[in-house]
Amino acid sequence: MSFVEFLKFGFSGWSWMGLLAFLFVVTHITIVGVTVFLHRCQSHKALKLNSLISHFFRFWLWLTTGMVTKEWVAIHRKHHAKCETENDPHSPKIKGINEVLWRGTELYRVSSKDSELIQKYGHGTPDDWLEKNLYSRFSWQGVAIMLVIDLMLFGVIGVGIWAIQMMWIPFFAAGVINGIGHYVGYRSYKTPDDSRNIFPLGILIGGEELHNNHHSFATSPRLSSKWYEFDIGWFYIKILMLLGLAETRSLPKAARLNPAKSAIDEDTIAAFLASKYELLQKLHRLSVHATVEQIKTSNKSNAIVEKLKNDFEEIWSEKIYSVEQAVQALQLWCAEAEKSGVDAMEEFARKLRMLTLGESRVGF
Fold it and tell me: Are residues 141 and 156 in the same domain?
């Protein structure tokens, strides 16, 4: 092979189809490394990975992103702790969608230099010899090695392939998930933040498209919750589990209906708290529907619906309630709702009495 041929095609000599296939595979592995290792395993401890799998992802992310595990984890945890406030590292509500979408990498870089933030939120991440003496100490050298590999494989075009690899996570993770995921999309759960599910089929970004689901159940290893949603990251985790290479936390229990149950008790409170945001969202939708249906005939009905909704939300925003106090407050609320004369509120109260804690959700 001549030097000119090497510059054009590298050692691989692959066609355009081969180059595109390579690019798809390597960027997808990087996305899987971020969602499975950095996000679900390291940040939220939703699963444990076999040491060889963990090290593979650490090495791969060093080559393809240059990100330091402790820094990424700390910034993400602070995002959850300070979501949609001035202290959120990347909230489009505070900083604007264009700033987060197009300058997400810069926002990450600024936060990564905050040593106090990293120490406070970065606990429990890898701290072995390799982390101290290679991955954290020489973070940019990994991506430089990747550039050399791409040049050797594909010649001059390898520079373009490398550039796309380097932009993949900054754009999709730092930009799209942190930006679009808090700006546009559908909400399955009424979380106190602005998180959105970008798309129900979580394939391109490893399942992270289901961002509102994640903010509702942050420690769940699975990001899908509806029958029509697909989380490819969870699919890979299931494969690792079958191979004995991963162990997950139990999937979060949720509220379901037990027709034989009719009393508000501790189980009712536990069930509600397990699906708090989903049930608050359902009440909000019911109250809007009830208002539209009944406001035509009675302004009083509209006032009752609004009061019931506000009183219900107030119960769950109160931080000093004991379980016994919460049971009593919910009993009083159900009694008020059942004599309100508003069909939707009466039905909601009746179903509340049937709530219990179970492995799977049943329509409410």
Answer: yes
